[in-house]
Thymidylate kinase
Amino acid sequence: MTHTPPHSYPGRLIVVEGIDGSGKSTQLDLLSDYLQSKGFGVLKSAWNSSPDISPIIRKAKKKQVLTPYAFSLLHAADFSFRYTYEILPAMEAGMIVLSDRYIYTAIARDCARGLPRPWLLSNFNFAIVPDLTFLFRVDPETSYQRITRTRSIKFYEAGLDMELSTDPRESYILFQSRVLAEYDNLRETHGFHVVDATLSLEKTQTRMRRLLSPIIRSLG
């Protein structure tokens, strides 16, 4: 992958990745509370949350009119906005940025939709390399069960646009299996720290804090 070299910003960038239902968002919230209790300035940045692009994505998803390329480009625009106006300013200010998904989400999902990897990589060449990336790994069946306890599976989340199956559950498992395989490819080349998403909250948080310790010390 042709990222820019490791960054020279005074802040630090911590990323959590994984398929839906892996528990990464909960762990990131706990990590944020921990870091703030230690006196660090923290910015949490979430996928698909820019004020200008996110509403457009939501409307298009509701109408189910997004092609794989349109899906990819809109999410890239959303990321670019957050990267420019949220992530980089916080990094320049010396804050710790906790990103709930980063460019790896786009690459994994869009590759799973059949888009060419070189094209996707070229779209994100501007993005700095995170200081630490966690990959929360859970099998798609477990992920599906967790999600459907509180809500129904969404159209694009299930990959129903790929016509892998007309059954939402089967389509979800098939599509998210593809996404997980792409994450595993990225893990091998980017040195993600794999987190067993079936472990308890306490064990997972302890491991995350331990891996984060050198980064905290580097901020002095």
Remarks:
- The chain has eight helices and five strands.
- The mean pLDDT is 93.
- Residues 12-218 form a domain with the Rossmann fold fold (CATH 3.40.50.300).
- The radius of gyration is 17 Å.
